[in-house]
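Weekly puzzle thread! Below is a chain. First person to post its structure in token form gets bragging rights.
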Amino acid sequence: YRTRERAFPDPTSLVLVDEADRLRMASLEQIRGIFDEGDIGLVLIGMPGIEKRLARYPQFYSRIGFVHEFRQLGVAEIRRLLAQPWVPSGVKLPPQPWADDAIAAIIRITSGNFRLLNRLLTQMERILEINGIQEITKTVVETARETLVIGVA
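Winning reply:
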């Protein structure tokens, strides 16, 4: 196996683990073993507090280079994203400019939550396609919001 492994080296250089806070310590130890054996980077993504949990395991915690907490996007950041124009991968939306009240509705509905912004824009594309609409309006945004399971806006 080692001969074959040297002939076909693993091209992996970075491993991303989403929802790492949900993993049991045994699973995290396996990830630590992979990190120790290979010449790879490791990114653990999880809910706030994961670093406190990992601090209880010195063998694991000593390998952590830094902790970064993502905050919600600000209004200016959302406006900048939409103006770029940024949309989720595979989503096609009409070009800017969009109605000011539509952009305001997007900002209000998502409250800076990037995941929700992604889902809302994807749903907006669906609403446009189903209804044969060619422009982003406040009505399109609110209709897309009503079809998502996101709680009260």
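Puzzle host: Confirmed. Bonus trivia for everyone else. Helices lie at 2-7, 25-37, 50-55, 58-61, 75-83, 100-110, 114-131, 138-147.
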